[in-house]
Each structure stands twice: as structure tokens, then as C-alpha cells.
């Protein structure tokens, strides 16, 4: 398998995607903490035990725009 260096634009795009994913994760964790605090503060048996996850800003393979191995060097 051969690899190639990322172009400056690809590096910048990757940084932006990582920033967006980090911001999403921060807000997701805050939402879960709030939800857990509300659930623990409510009377026993009230509230759902199921957690709902908000959609991630990135799905697998979306970060580079193509699946690994799709490009030839």
C-alpha cells in the first residue's frame, strides 16, 4: 500500500472537520450531562432510561471525501 502527503488544502479541510466534530462532541456531552442531571433529579420511575444521540457532523468515510484506497498515487 502506498501513501501520499496531504495537500495544504486537504490539511486545512481536515482541521476544519476536526474542529466541527470537537464542537459537536462538546455540545453532545453537555446535553447528556443535563439530561442525566434532570433524570437523576426526577422521582424514581419518571423519565426515560433511553438515550437519544444527535447526529454527528461526520459519518465514516465523509472526512476525506472518499473511502480509503479509492485514490491511486
UniProtKB/TrEMBL annotation:
Tell me what this protein is called.
Uncharacterized protein
- Region annotation (Disordered) maps to 1-73
Q: Which organism is it from?
A: Billgrantia pellis
Q: Which domain of life is it from?
A: Bacteria
Q: Where is the composition biased (Polar residues)?
A: 45-63
Amino acid at each position: 500500500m502506498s501513501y501520499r502527503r496531504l495537500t495544504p488544502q486537504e490539511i486545512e479541510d481536515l482541521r476544519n472537520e476536526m474542529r466541527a466534530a470537537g464542537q459537536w462532541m462538546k455540545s453532545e456531552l453537555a446535553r447528556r450531562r443535563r439530561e442525566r442531571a434532570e433524570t437523576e433529579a426526577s422521582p424514581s420511575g419518571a423519565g426515560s432510561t433511553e438515550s437519544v444521540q444527535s447526529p454527528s457532523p461526520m459519518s465514516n468515510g465523509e472526512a476525506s471525501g472518499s473511502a480509503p484506497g479509492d485514490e491511486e498515487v
